[in-house]
Amino acid sequence: MLLRHKALFSLAFAGLACSAAHGQDDAPHRGRKYKAPPVTSHVEVDVVKGTNQKPVANAAVVFRSVKNGKDEGNLEVKTNEEGKAVIDIIPTGSEVDVQVIAEGFATFAGHYKLDEASRTISIAMLKPRAQVSAYVDTSGKESDRAVGVQEPKRTSTSPVIQSPKPTNHTSDPSPTAPVSTPP
Question: What predicted TM-score, i.e. pTM, was given to this entire model?
Fold first, then answer.
């Protein structure tokens, strides 16, 4: 009889263990579901001088990506000694604005669509050009300002004129308030 109770107990325990193991699969999941990161493109930007095709080192390459109307953010990468900037985190299918800023060169800006897994963008940097004018033909002319100079130097020899200090234009030089005395 004792043997019979042990057999029933072991069968009941085994059934309970099996149902508990399957019960974990049926329970609702708590917490976050895993979301795989988006597929990204490998983008390599080659920055060279427009005059002699030599690489431009330490140029700032700014990426601004937009995917499906949603701004994915900005990122700046510096070019290495070979003039290359590499980035691997922009989602495939994004539209990317690339801006290149280098000392001694005009700023470059371009718009690209990343539909492929790998993309190489070659950029030839040009010297600063004269400002575009509706009155004077400046196409192809070099800038008349030195690199990095925003305002021309003023060589005025006239002294600086200071504006006069404001004065009080009242007719009574010492205005006083009426004094009330207690009764």
Answer: 0.58
